[in-house]
Amino acid sequence: MEVIFLLIGISLVLAVTFLVLFFRAMKGGQFDDDYTPSVRILFENQPKKTIKDQPKKSKTYE
Amino acid sequence: MNQIFPTHTDSKCFHCGEDCELEPIRFDGKEFCCQGCKLVYEVLAQNDLCEFYTLDSNPGKSQKGNFKQKNRFDYLDDPEVVGKIFDFRNETESHITFYVPQIHCSSCIWLLENLFQINSAIVGSRVDFIKRKVQIKFLHERISLKEVVNLLSVLGYEPNLKLSDLSQEKTSHLDRRTLTKLGVAGFCFGNMMLFSIPEYFSEAKLLGQDFKGLFDYLNVLLALPIVFYAASDYYLSAWHAVRHRKMNMDVPIVLGIFAFFLYSLWEIFTQGNAGYLDSLGGLLFFLLLGKIYQQKTFATLEFDRDYKAYFPIAVTRVSKDTEEVVPLTKVRLGDVLLVRNEELVPADSVLLDRQANIDYSFVTGEEVPVPVQKGDLIYAGGRQRGEAVLLTVQKLPSQSYLTDLWNNGENKNLNSRLLEPLANRISGVFTWTVLAIAVIAFGYWISRDASVAVKAFTTVLIVSCPCALSMSTPFTLGNTLRIFGKAKFYLKNASVVEKLALVDTLVFDKTGTLTNPSRASIEYFGENLTSETKSIIKGMVRQSTHPLSNRISQWLGSQEVEVLSEVREAQGAGLESLHKGQLFRLGSREFAGVGKDEPNDVGNFVYLSVEGVFLGYFLIRSGLRESAPEVVSSLSKEFELHVLSGDQDHERDTLTKRLASDIRYNFNQSPSDKLNYLKELNSSGSQTLMLGDGLNDAGALRESHVGVAITDQVSHFSPASDAILDSESFSKIPNFLAFARDSRLIIKLNFGLSFLYNALGLSLAVQGYLSPVLCAVLMPLSSISVVVFSTLATHIMGIRKGLIHLNKH
Question: In angstroms, rounded to a whole number, what is the distance separating the alpha carbons of residues B124 and B101?
C-alpha cells in the first residue's frame, strides 16, 4: 500500500502542471476573445513569395 | 433627352457589391462603383492580397463619400497628444489598439491581419472581431502612427479615434482575475475531495491511520490558497460593508469561511479528526462560479460613455488664414474653428458665417437639420450638414451645456443606496438570526458539555453559511440578463434587474422614443400632381441626402424617375432643377418663393413651385412608433406615465387622442428641465425609469433610477445609461418589466428554499450531530438544487413572457 504515497505525489504534480498551464493560457489572453480564432483557423497559410526554399543543411555526425 | 429609364445598371461593384449607379469605372477587367473602391482594389492587387475577395462575397465597404481632407490626421504627429493611446512602446516597437467599427466579415479579419504584407514596418496585427478592435504592432522608426492610420483609412478601415481614447485606462483584467481564482478554487476543491474519500467511507477502513493523517495535512495545505487567495474578494467586500455599518451577502459568507477554516484546523491538529475543509473548497468554488455567471457583459456595448466618447480628438483651427489641426484639449475660448460637412461641433460656439445647417440628431433625436443664422449659438454635439463653416468657441468642450448635464447626474450612487438589493436586506436579518442561534446553542450546551458547546457554536455558523442563499441571486439575475439580451434588451449589470422590478413610474422622451423618425407621415396639399411632375420630383429628391428628401422619395414609392440634367441643392433651403425650360423648386417657403402664410399645422413643410408659381406643399410629421399606443395603454394600467418633450405643445391633441389619456405631458422641456423633472419625481419617492434616446436626455437618464437608452443600432450611439434597448423590441417593454418582477419573485422563492436547507442543517448542528460527510453532501446538494430551480424558473417565465422561444426543430 505504500505505493500510494508515490501515486499521490504524481497526481499532485500532474494537477499542478495543469493549473500552471491554465495560468499561462489566461495570461496569454486565450480566454479574452473566443470568437475570432474560430475564423482565423480557416485562413489558408499562403507561403510568402519572397522566402525561397533553402536547402536544409545536412547534419553531420562525427 | 426625354426618355425615362430606371437609373441603376446591372453592374455591381467588384469591391463592395453595391449597384453601380453611374457608369462603372473599369479597371483590370473588373467594375467599380467609385474611385475609392478601385483604389482599395489597386492596393490589394499590388500586394497580392486578392484572397480578400475570395473569403466572403463582396467584402468591401463602399468608399463613396470617403473623400475627406488630407491633413485630418496631422495631430497624430504630436507626441504629447498621442502619448497615452499606445498600449505599449519601447525603443523600436509600438503597440496600439484601434476601434474599427467597419469590421464586419471574415475577409476584414484576414486583411487586417495581413497588413504586414502591405507595409513591412508593420510587425503584426490581431483582430478582436466581437469588440471590433484591431491591435497593430509596428516599428515606429520606419512608419509613423499617422501613416498607419492613413493606411487603414485608405483600405476603408478608418479607426474611430475619440477623445476618450486619450484618457481611458487601458484594458483592465478584472475578469481574468476572477477566472484565475476560480481555477485555483477548482484545483484545490477537486484534490481535497479526493483526499477526503477515506473520511467519507471511514467505516470501511480503506486505509491505515498514517494515510488519514497525511491526507488531512494535505487538505490543510490545499485549503491555504482558497482561504488566502480565492476568497480575498469576499473579505474586501465584507470589510467594506461592515465599515459603513451595512450588511451584505458577503458578511455571513466570510463568517462562514472563518468558522469552517478555524474549526477544521482545530479538529485536525488537536482532535485528529478530518474537519470540513473539502466543504469549504466546494463553497468557494460554487460561489466563484456564480460570480462569473453573473458577470455576463455585452462586450460590444458601452454603457458608461461620457461626452468624450463622441467628440473627435482633433479639430481644425483657423488663425491668421492658416488652418492647423489641433487636439481638442488644446482648444481655448475664442478660437476660430472650421467645421466641415458631417463634422461634429465640439464646443458651444457662435456662428461666424452667414448660415449653417445643424443636425442635432445626437442631441434631440430629430434628424431634420436646423438652420442657424450668423451670430447664433450652436450647441456642442450638433453636426454640420453642408458647406464648411467658421465658429468661435464660447465654452470649453468640457464645460459645454450638454457635458454639464453629464456631470450633474453624479449622484447616481446616492440614489441607488435607497434601493438596497434584496439579498443585502435579507442577509442582514439572516446574519443576526444565525449568530443568535449559535449563541443560544452555545449557552445551552456550556453547562452540560463544553466540547459539544464549541462544536455546536461553530457548526451552526458552518452549516448556515449562506451558500444556497448567495448562489440564488447571481444565477437568477445572470439568467435574467441573458434572457433580456436574447430579446435585445441589454442591461449594464445584474443589479439593474432588481431596480427594474421596483419601478413604478415611467418617463418617456417623445422625439425618437415614442415617435419614430422613419415612420413619418407625409401628406400633400395643393394642386394634383401629374405623373410627370411626380417623376420630376422623384428625380430631384433622389439627388439629395436631406432626411426630408428621403421621406418624400419614400412617399413617391416606385414612381418612375425622370433623369434630370442638373439638380442644384441649396444647403438648408431646398432643391432646384431646370427641366424643359421650367424651373422646379422644392424647399422652404422663402426658397420656393411662395408668399403664402405658414399653414396652421405642426411638422416640417416642403413647398413646391414651378417658375415661381406655388403648386402645393408636403406636410411631414414624425409618426408614432408602430406599437406605441398598445405599449402605452398596457403600461398605463400599472405605472404612472410621464412624457417629456422638447417640442412646443402643438402635438398635445394628437398625442392624447392616440395614446392613453392619463399621461402627464410636459412640453417645452430643456435638457436641464428634464433632469430636474426626474429629480422631483425621485424626491417624491417614485422609483423612476427614464426612456430616452438623445444627448439631451443624458442628464435625465443618469438621474433616473433606471435609465434606458433606445437606439436603432445598439453598437452605435447611445448616451450613458443603465440599459440599452433595441428599438425593435420597443413593443416588449411591458413584458420586460413584468419579467424583471418575476425574477425578483424567483429570488424570493429561492430564499425560501435555502432557508429550508438551513433549518434542516441547523436542527442537526444545534444538537451537535453534524459530521463531515453530512456537511459535504448537504452543501453541494443545496447549491445545485437552487441553481437548477432558478435556471428552470427563469426560462419558463421567459418563454411565458414571450422573450425567448423554445428551439423549433
Answer: 20
Q: pTM for the full model?
A: 0.74
Give dist(CA B132, CA B203) in Å, integer. 60
Distances in Å between the Cα of B551 and the Cα atoms of B86, B162, B556, B647 are 44, 32, 9, 21
- Domain residue ranges in chain A: 3-32
ipTM of the complex: 0.74
Q: Which of residues 11-30 of A touch B (CB under 8 A)?
A: 11-12, 15-16, 18-19, 22-23, 26
Contact B187 A35 (CB under 8 A): no
Q: Is B394 helix (H, G, I), strand (E, B) or coil?
A: coil
Q: What is the pLDDT of residues B327-360, one digit of tens each?
A: 787 888 888 888 887 788 888 888 888 888 888 7
Max Cα separation, chain A? 63
**Residue pair B689/B415 in contact by the 8 Å Cβ criterion:** no
Task: Find where cell 458647406 sits.
Answer: B387
Residue B191: list chain A partners with CB under 8 A. 11-12, 15
Chain-chain contact of B190 with A4 (C-beta, under 8 angstroms): no
Q: Which residues of A touch B190 (CB under 8 A)?
A: 15
Q: Which residue of A has its CA nearest to B112?
A: A40
CB-CB: which of B106, B109, B187 is closest to A15? B187
Contacts of A19 in chain B (CB under 8 A): 183-184, 187
Which residues of chain B make contact with A31, given a CB cutoff of 8 A? 176, 179
CA separation for the pair B546, B663 (Å, rounded): 34
Pull the grid cell for residue B744: 425578483
Written as nine digits, the cell of B529 is 400632381
Q: Would you list which residues of chain B are within 8 Å, Cβ to Cβ, of chain A?
A: 48, 51, 55, 106, 109-110, 113, 127-131, 176, 179-180, 183-184, 187, 190-191, 194, 207-208, 211, 214, 218
Count of pairs with CB atoms under 8 A, one residue in A, one in B: 54
Within a 10 A sphere around the Cβ of B268, how many other Cβ atoms?
19
Sign of the alpha-carbon dihedral angle for B36, B38, B39, B45: positive
Go through the domains of chain B in sequence order and give each one's CATH number. 1-67 (no CATH), 72-167 (3.30.70.100), 174-295+418-476+741-800 (no CATH), 312-407 (2.70.150.10), 481-515+625-740 (3.40.50.1000)
Mind listing the pLDDT tens digit for each residue in B614-641?
888 888 777 777 788 888 888 888 888 8
Question: With contact defined as beta carbons under 8 Å apart, do B386 and B212 qualify?
Answer: no
Q: Which of B795, B806, B796, B779 is nearest to B256 (CA)?
A: B779
Contacts of B579 (CB under 8 A, 6+ apart): B536, B562, B564, B565
